[in-house]
Amino acid sequence: MTTASYYASAKDQYASIGVDTEAALEILATIPISVHCWQGDDVGGFESDAGLTGGGILATGNYPGRARTIDELRRDLALVYSLVPGRHRLNLHASYLDHAGKTVDRDAIVEEHFQSWVAWARQLDIGLDFNPTFFSHPLANDGFTLSHPDKSIRQFWIEHGKRCRRIGAFFGRELGSTCVTNIWIPDGLKDTPADRLSPRERLTESLDAIFEEPIDPSHNLDAVECKLFGLGSESYVVGSHEFYLGYAIKNQLALCLDAGHFHPTESIADKLSSILLYVPRLLLHASRGVRWDSDHVILLNDELQAIAREVVVGKYLDRIHVGLDYFDASINRLAAWAIGVRNIQRALLIALLEPTEKLIRLELKADYTSRLALFESIKSLPFGAVWNYFCETRDAPTDDA
Length: 401
Ligand code: RNT
Ligand code: ZN
Prior knowledge:
By secondary structure, the protein is of the alpha/beta class. The chain has helices spanning 3-16, 21-28, 70-82, 115-124, 151-175, 197-211, 241-251, 272-275, 302-313, 333-352, 356-364, 368-377, 383-393, and strands spanning 33-36, 89-93, 127-131, 179-183, 188-189, 220-225, 236-237, 254-258, 282-286, 288-290, 293-296, 320-324. Residues 184, 225, 258, 285, 325 line the site of zinc ion.
């Protein structure tokens, strides 16, 4: 049997429960995944050869082949894009600038340092997203950046944030595709703080200063990302969930939910429909927490499927930006990327193939038994045949290939 004939039979099976596979694939093809550049070089960036130096995150493993130059990273990414169906995006960090041999500090970066990324993205016909880099820097060594007690240090990071928004707008304008610029800072403390409030007050002020400059939202959208704890910030994180949820609601910004940034058994899936009542947009960092690490390669597990289901069933595809955020240096880095993109796409496809209206009808009739039976029986349907057909018709390898 061929991929096409497996698909024909799967299509019939789905049709018999009222699901149109063609419609599902059409929608799937419109969902870009923002591929995080930092999986390719263990979050090192190209400012210097120092690599990732602290800031609450850590890449572990010694798999050979880490991208050492911008050119190597771009070639790796191009290969990854060829291994996944559909057209996607690239999520860049400020530390991946192209400084042409000159040292440029974070408070001095400008559009020009990202011109070659824009040219490359244009060639590939992909959009760019962006992140200021508030870690791997001598001024991030005290555990505080935007919330640092020293005003001049705060000022340095505010300047970085402001410049990053302008660079994000430059991406959006040049590529004709809105850029999401996401702020995550590592600020926090290893041990019990004496003062939990003041750093949060200072963070509010710093963020207000960064977001002061009006920027056309069709070019750049601002997002803020919380965390529960990090390496070296186990006892206190300034930018907690409550902090950023409040800040995003008050300022109508996008909130970034990283799946690995909550309590180990806490799922973000149930948060979407609540938060989206109050904030305009969400950015998803698809990730997988394992014990103390929040950044393992995403699996096609219950958690990922629950998140994807909420995105699809809530009809949030125009309000949720889907991105990846993990870094594994113990396996082939290109495979880590490709497996992750394909997994979030497969999770979205499973959701798109759900007979949701039927399930809701049963729920409204209080027929919870039939709802449970249907939820369980659709798990046996051949979504893999639909997925492989999607891959094959969009120039990407099928799963077994
Ligand atoms: C860290 C955050 C953040 C980073 C990237 C590199 O815990 O998840 O998103 O992973 O900025
Ligand atoms: Zn993240």
